[in-house]
Amino acid sequence: MSANPLLRDWNTPFGLPPFAEIKPDHFKPAFDEALALHKREIAAITDNPAPPSFANTIDALELAGHRLDQVNGVFWNLANAHTSPEIQAIEREISPVLALHGSKIYMDAKLFARIDALYQQIDKLGLSDEQKRVLDLTHKAFIRSGAQLDDGKKARMAEILQRLAKLGTAFGQNVLRDEGNWTLVLKDDDLAGLPDWLLEDARRAAEDRGLAGKRVITLLRSSIEPFLQFSARRDLRELALKAWASRGEHDGATDNRPLVAEMVRLRADRAQLLGFDTFADYKLDESMAKTPKAVRGLLDAVWTPAKTQAGLEANALAKIAAREGQSGPIAPHDWRYYASKLRKELHDLDEAVLKPYFQLDKIIEAAFETARRLFGVDFSERKDLQLYHPDARAWDVTDKDGKHVALFIGDYFARPSKHSGAWMNAIRSQKKLGGDVQAIVLNVMNFNKGADGKPALLSFDDARTVFHEFGHGLHGMLSDVTYPLLSGTNVPRDFVEFPSQVYEHWLMQPEILRAYAVHVDTGAQLPEDLLKRLLAARNFNQGFATVEYSSSAIVDLEFHSLRSADNLDPIAFETETLQQISMPSEIMMRHRTPHFTHVFSGDGYSAGYYSYLWSEVLDADGFAAFEEAGNIFDPALAERLKTYVYSAGASRDPEEAYKLFRGRAPTIDALLEKRGLAPKAA
To answer: Which of 379, 381, 376, 357 is nearest to 516 (CA)?
Structure first.
């Protein structure tokens, strides 16, 4: 048995990694050995003297790399959710190594020849539909990775991928450092407008940073956004928003501007090596959208009504500001502050009154109960498992017959060792090839802990984030496929957000809110009048939200629609793009370029940030099916949603999967209605 816990099979409950045994210095030798083993496994396929068959080529390829998957599953979870200087150093070293390893496999001429030989007779091999899908996707993946390039272009492609891996790692680490290096220490005369719960959060944030007795605002979204919403000190709001907006834009070691310029250029080069005009053309070729033109068409369809609505909202905010003695136009650092006041005027909603009804544990219970009623799964907390951090919690997921389905881990609280944001990740993906393997899925978020052991309280948007990420989690946990390539969330980027976004709708249903929105001190149910006001306000500020999001998606698309990116000044390009679309001066992009980790810390959402909106067309239209049925837990619809979406992974084309669930293609009408952007009746 290996002394390195990463290099042995884990005889632990659920096959959970033995986190207590794993130390940073285990990773380098584990990666070395796992990479060497994977190379031998690939060589055994390519050197096999037998003619290629599905079993000796595709099955073998899918089974290869188990040990490397095991090491990767642990390492990248820690790199994102509980990092350290040692982990970050390994990340910088291993990222280009893994990129080179992957490119060598996907550009291996002998391996591709075997795959291509099978692909040319795909309809003659007696394959199942799932096997055909795997062969088709594998063949495409090799071509899109450069398998058909000549040797010179293959070398250049490998060089590009290695460099992009280095740059993406550096980009994310720079943002994390900038977030960790800034705090706003609040003096006694800086507290005007701040509710008690935010002051308590600021006190605990100060303690966490060795500043006991003080109060600090940090650049975690759970700290900065409520400060911008409540602080009556306009000068401090401006200071805080400037710090938030300028992450990654400082001269020196954390400057991401030159990294962006190089990444955009290298991505364009990569696409053109493969015969595509731009990186956006390359990236979208395998998406539901298919083309940059289709994406821009969707974005433009919402941009105009959103900008019109945002203008009306800005006028309303300016009137409140004028009443309070502020002269001049609304600025980005004013919007959340005056929007909170306008929301109070229009809907009589006060975050300080609403927040005690949204306890983190109750919202988690609500997400679990929704899954039970829709999909027949139950969640039992396992306090006997040792995880990678004391804040993380685990649940055994079982079906209606009590059979183990998955292990779910929730890691909900902010800490300096965690990247900001919220995401779903899998330590292990579901598969049946080579044995029935269930998923180990994580949801990672960045909420503030409750004060002095009291329950953590969420904003309504935070509660929606819990449901969103849990929707992703269910996509991984309910996966029921044979092949790892098809498992869980391994679907096109503009489809992957559908299962997460449609799940959010259940939180907003009175049936769920009445049961789980209960007061933290009294246990009282959310009052009916408050519930009605909350639901009536669901379209409040949607002009702002849509402009904030869509501008980021447009800038992303335009960066990656460049044919040549030589001498690119990213900030100037961002500014010019926003000018072209007449970006309202009162609103700032949701993600400015130097800290746009979705797009530049790896390329997962590069030329793909539009995906949330594309999927929103699906989720708005899809949930409308339950409303039309008159039952938000309609059994037949829920079964189709599970069968064709949550359990199916990539086993079908996503358009086909959606139609099998909904019975027809989606329309944009429900999206515009959901966002309050539909044309008003005359």
So the answer is: 357
Residue 126, both tokens: 């007696």
Tokens encoding 16: 């959970």
Backbone angles phi, psi at 571, to 5 degrees: -70, -40
Buried (b) or exposed (e) across 565-580, using 16+ Cβ within 10 A? beebebeebbeebbee
Q: Which residue has the tokens 């990767």?
A: 72
Convert 378-406 to b/e letters by CB count within 10 Å (16 or more is b).
Answer: bbeebeebebbeebbbbbbbbeeeeeebb
DSSP tag of 212: T
Query: Would you say 337 and 487 are in contact if contact means Cβ atoms under 8 Å apart?
Result: no
φ, ψ (nearest 5 deg) of residue 184: -110, 110
Listed as ranges, residues in the chain with pLDDT below 70 are 1, 680-682
Amino acid found at 185: V
The pLDDT of residue 33 is: 98
Euclidean distance between CA atoms 556 and 553, whole angstroms:
5
Beta bridge mates, 431:
437
- Residue 103: what residue type? S
Tokens 């044309």 appear where? 679
Q: Which helix (H) or strand (E) holds 397?
A: strand 393-398
Alpha helices in 182-233 (DSSP H): 196-208, 221-230
**In 404-527, beta strands by DSSP E:** 404-413, 423-428, 439-447
- Which DSSP letter does residue 518 get? B
Q: Which two tokens stand for residue 532?
A: 């009605």
Which of 352, 627, 354, 370 is closest to 515 using CA atoms?
A: 370
Sign of the CA dihedral with 464 first, then 666, 597, and 583 last: negative
CA 246 to chain centre: 22
Quick one: tokens of 266?
A: 């290298």
- State the angle between helix axes of 611-629 and 654-662 in degrees (0 to 180), rounded to the nearest 10: 20
Question: One of 62, 351, 469, 586 is an active-site residue; which one?
Answer: 469
> What one-character-per-residue DSSP string does 292-358 give?
HHHHHHHHHHHHHHHHHHHHHHHHHHHHHHHHTT--S---HHHHHHHHHHHHHHHH---HHHHGGG-
What DSSP letter does each residue of 523-577 carry, written as one string? -PBPPHHHHHHHHHTTTTTHHHHHHHHHHHHHHHHHHTT-S--TT--HHHHHHHH
User: CA distances (Å), 63 to each of 29, 70, 109, 372, in order?
Assistant: 22, 12, 20, 32
Name the burial class of residue 501, with classes exposed (0-12), middle (13-18) and buried (19+) by CB atoms within 10 angstroms of its CB.
Answer: buried
Structure confidence at residue 1 (pLDDT): 67
- In eight-state DSSP terms, residue 643 is I
Q: Residue 682 has what pLDDT?
A: 46
Can 469 be counted among the known catalytic residues? yes
C-alpha to C-alpha distance for 386 and 13, rounded to whole angstroms: 10
Task: Decide: helix, strand or coil at residue 600.
Answer: helix
How do beta strands 404-413 and 439-447 pair? parallel
What predicted TM-score, i.e. pTM, was given to this entire model? 0.95
pLDDT of residue 680: 62
In contact, 486 and 130? CB cutoff 8 Å: yes
In the numeric block, the tokens 């300028």 are attached to 246
Structure tokens belonging to residue 448: 């503030």
Q: Which two tokens stand for residue 276?
A: 């595509």
